[in-house]
Amino acid sequence: MFFRASVLLRCGPQKRGFASAAANFRIPVIDFSKFRTAQSDREKKQTADEIVSAFKNSGFIYVSNHGIPEDTVSHVFKKSAEFFRMPPDVKAKLAWEDPRSNRGYVQIGRERVTQSADAAEILALREKAPDFKESMEIGRDWDSEWKNQWPQESDAPGFKRTMLDFFQTCHDLHVEMMRSVALGLDLSEDFFDRKVDKQCHNLRLLSYPPIKSSLLEMEGQARAGAHSDYGTLTLLFQDSVGGLEVMDPNTGVFVPATPIPGTIVINVGDLLARWSNDVLRSTLHRVVSPAKMISSSETITPARQSVVFFSNPNFDATIECLPNCGTEARYPPVNTEKYIVGRLSATYM
Question: Domain Fe2OG dioxygenase, which positions (predicted)?
Answer without folding.
Answer: 199-313
